[in-house]
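User: Structure please.
Assistant: Input sequence and predicted structure:
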Amino acid sequence: MNKPISAAPRKPARMSPMALTEALVARTMRVVEDAGPTPGMIYMTDQDYARFRDEILASAPAGPLKLFAYGSLLWKPAGEVRGGERAVARGWHRSFCFTVQRFRGTLDQPGLMMALDRGGQCQGMVFEIAEPVAENLEALLRREMTILPAVNVPRWLRVRTEGGMSRALGFVVDPANSRYAGKLDKPAVAATLASAVGHWGSGAQYLFETIRHLDACGIRDRNLWQLQELVAQEIWRVHAAG
């Protein structure tokens, strides 16, 4: 069962309201029918999910299985999780770094999705995957991974919380994957997020909800904050031109 997450240990001082508003996000939304599996892609099978699940469980540290959430898992988790405390994963940063032709994009207008990419650090939240762990872990994998070879790869990360260092499962990008978009500059990312939309919604909506829920957890991501301003400007530009 999916449970919305709302963990707000403390609120950051808000310097200014978001330029990207719900009204602007609404301008990017339209009804898009799911075109189904992308031609030419190899989709994961039940056996693939079971293999990933079992490998993760076999390599898991002792104690509760922890999940590092940094994007949509903050507000649309798969399976059931519990608890929640702020954490930092060093050596990684959240980035719109791989392309999608489904979900939040189409074949004609691919979108961008977020993963952890190398460098910097990332503030997020650590949750425990609830019992039954194997079932909830597999639900998570089915949400995050669809195509082989996987571009969004599960990996044990070292994260720091107020209680010290621990290992938590996170999803990081494989830079060798053909769907890896590289380190795009912010204007290029903003242009894609402002225009791409799939049957799950638009890239602008994904960015908006991520920032909003990070804010609820007391987390301000400087790069995402700059990006939302550019996306808002791009939406205004496109609609003013139209």
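The CA atoms of residues 157 and 168 lie 5 Å apart.
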